[in-house]
């Protein structure tokens, strides 16, 4: 007796229509559709994870940035409460016999205040040494003193000190055309900015083929320097045309002319008789303050007012209408003796 035939399989229930009235394919097409959907899901899954991670990273970065800003603000507030500021790194104090204070730099005393800080040169040097553990002080006798710090040097604007044949030079910055200057003054390849400045000054002092304004104008770069010649008892101070190096000057209660890179030090030692050193200018004992960019023009003092409305030194600017006497008599003038013959 033969076995009964198996019952036929139940009919497959068709899937519900998809959005838009489309039906999910059946049979072989259903398999292909399922595989395609699986592949698409696998392809989009890493992208979704990546986008999610990036969103998390951006959120964390924003939070870190806000925390950093709050931290910087807190540190600044603490520093302001303590009265901290950048330390002075160079200082020069000259007696009035070798560096006379220009007219206009000294300001009248503020209401209820002293004309200048007390203590004079000794107090300035003592304060500089107390604020800098690596301070080096060079006494110039009755002419004054130099001081600098040998620590915390910036490689982009190095600070250097040197002396050759009783000529002392304190330099901060960087000269870009140092190679051309070495060749011009006949110096070795190992010469640095201090050596070049001292040689340039010696050439100017002994032979004088160029005016002092040309010597400073030949320096290309960021710089501020203080030079003192103990033989001729002369000073030579200059700053670049852009004022790239913080540099100030003032006059203390003992009529000493003071130069430094720290305005707070000058404020303590000179009261309200200090100001930024004029850009593009140089100072010498014989010629006073001059502009090396406009050597034929006079400089005029413009009173400076601080944030509290008090007079605080003067800013010296080039007077485009005032010309210096060139020393050569004009034709027809009373000094022209050529028509006497």
Write the layout of secondary structure elements.
Blueprint (H helix, E strand, L loop, with lengths): L27 H55 L7 E5 L25 H12 L3 E5 L4 E6 L9 E6 L2 E9 L2 H8 L7 H14 L5 H6 L3 E9 L4 E6 L8 E4 L5 E4 L2 H8 L3 E3 L4 E4 L3 E4 L5 E9 L5 E13 L18
Antiparallel strand pairs: 1-3, 1-9, 2-3, 4-5, 5-6, 6-7, 7-11, 8-9, 8-10, 11-12, 13-14
Helix pairs in contact: 2-6, 3-4
Q: Hey, roughly how much beta strand do the residues contain?
A: 25-35%
CATH fold type of the domain at 90-323:
Glutamine Phosphoribosylpyrophosphate, subunit 1, domain 1
Helix content: 25-40%
Using the alpha-carbon principal axes, give the shape: extended
Mean pLDDT: 78
Unreliable parts: 69-85, 333-341
Structural class assignment: alpha+beta
What is the CATH architecture descriptor of the domain at 90-323? 4-Layer Sandwich
How many alpha or pi helices?
6
Elements, N to C (H/E): HEHEEEEHHHEEEEHEEEEE
Main beta sheet strand tally, sense and closure: 6 strands, antiparallel
Oligomer: single chain
Give the neighbour order of strands across the main sheet.
2-3-1-9-8-10
CATH homology group of the domain at 90-323:
Aminohydrolase, N-terminal nucleophile (Ntn) domain
Please give the alpha-carbon distance between the first and last residues. Answer: 163 Å
Mind telling me the C-alpha Rg?
38 Å
Number of strands: 14
CATH class identity of the domain at 90-323:
Alpha Beta
